[in-house]
Amino acid sequence: MSDSTIRASDADRERVVTALQQHVGEGRLTLDEFSERSAAAYRSRTRGELDVLTRDLPTPAPRASTTRRPLVPVLVVVAVLLLGALLAMGYPATADAMGEMMSQMGRMCG
């Protein structure tokens, strides 16, 4: 059995409609084209019918993550550099002050 004759799942249909939405946002499809293709996607019974709807479009780029986790390593490096600069200038840093600074960074990132 070829992949194009396999029955499409609801998740398959949603993936195609999501890709079509992204192509509208990028200016490759008009709203009318999106409407026609998304309606056809929801009517599709096989993966082959879904493939036809996106065949003339490039594979969409993955969407950027909105999570702030990549910022955490940057903030840690900045804190360490700032602490080093303060110590080099003779600023009296105590364990309590360092702990408070790390706690504040955790609240900012978390």
UniProtKB/TrEMBL annotation:
Pfam families: DUF1707 (PF08044). The chain crosses the membrane at residues 71-93. It comes from the Bacteria. The keyword Membrane applies. Keywords: Membrane, Transmembrane, Transmembrane helix. Residues 6-58 form the DUF1707 domain. The keyword Transmembrane applies. InterPro entries: DUF1707_SHOCT-like (IPR012551). This is DUF1707 domain-containing protein.
